[in-house]
Amino acid sequence: MQLQWVAQAQFAGYYAALDQGFYKDEGLDVTINEAGTDTVPIDEIAAGSADFAISWVPKVLGSIEQGTNVTDVAQIFERSATTQISMKDKSITKAADLKGHTVGSWGFGNEWELFAGMQKAGVNLDDITLVQQQFDMNAFLAGDIDAAQAMTYNEYAQVLETMNPKTNKLYTPDDLNVINWNDEGTAMLQDAIWADADRLADDEDYQDTTVKFIKASIKGWMYARDNPQEAADIVTAAGSTLGTSHQLWMTNEVNKLIWPSTSGGIGMIDTKAWDQTVKIAKGTKNETGATIITDDPPKTAYSNEYVEKALSELKDDGEDVTGDGFTPIDVTLKEGGN
């Protein structure tokens, strides 16, 4: 399996499935490959270097339009983790408030929810000062960016792990405003399990393996849901360099993106959420005037066939695949995430 980044609790379920023997229970010998800065997970499937990959839906839609034949076989993250955060004194609480401010964007395919939110709110590029944001919060903390991109499970925590020079204490959520794209109606589907569409069409063994892989991965995510501290420790043991409190925060926040599942069970691809992602991918322009795709993706771009089989087997085993009673834990962040 090819990840889309290095070992961290964003992928806790897969590391837990490996550590707890869930893949082995399904007769699978799984190797998890981390990504580098230039790794495109879907290309690893196309090159035959990976059987499955983890990647955001909008990023893969562009690859599919360019000819890469892959299928979203399990939509693990049901909600988006991308936000735009600002200090309270900037009074930026919604997309429309970005007008007149310096706005950070990572780019590299991470910008589409921001641009869709601005366009929906009638905020044009001429209305803001767009800044190329690094993959950290340094410019935001220095005051060079009014509203910065931040994942709930990572960069947002980086701010809360930093000392506020005005109080000599760590920043708190009360110091910040957060624009949540789920609330703004421009959220896009993120982490999903992708498989080779050609092999799914022709190879019965691969079809069977896909069901088993999804089933074991879901068991890993259920383990992370029910044992967040243990899951965080597993990822740390796998080589993550993130601090102890940051790793647990990430596990907890990622769990919130999955549980409770409102789509019929973890991994099910919700048609409404898929269609919204495609609509934004077709109709939203970035600062260069480009869109992610120009036409609807093929029907093979996603399938619930394999995840439905996996969920059916798990339900027969008495497993809780919806997490209706899920309650996140309280995580106390420490300076530097330690």
Can you put this structure into words, describing what you see?
It is built from 14 helices and ten strands. With 338 residues, the chain is α+β, with helices and mostly antiparallel strands. The protein has a three-stranded antiparallel sheet. Strands 6-3-9 form a three-stranded antiparallel sheet. A two-stranded parallel ribbon has the order 4-5. A hairpin with a 4-residue loop joins strand 7 (163-164) and strand 8. The longest helix has 23 residues, at 204-226. The protein is globular and about 60 Å long. 48% of the residues are buried.
Keywords:
globular; 13% strand; 10 strands; three-stranded antiparallel β-sheet; 338 residues
Short description:
By secondary structure, the chain is of the alpha+beta class.
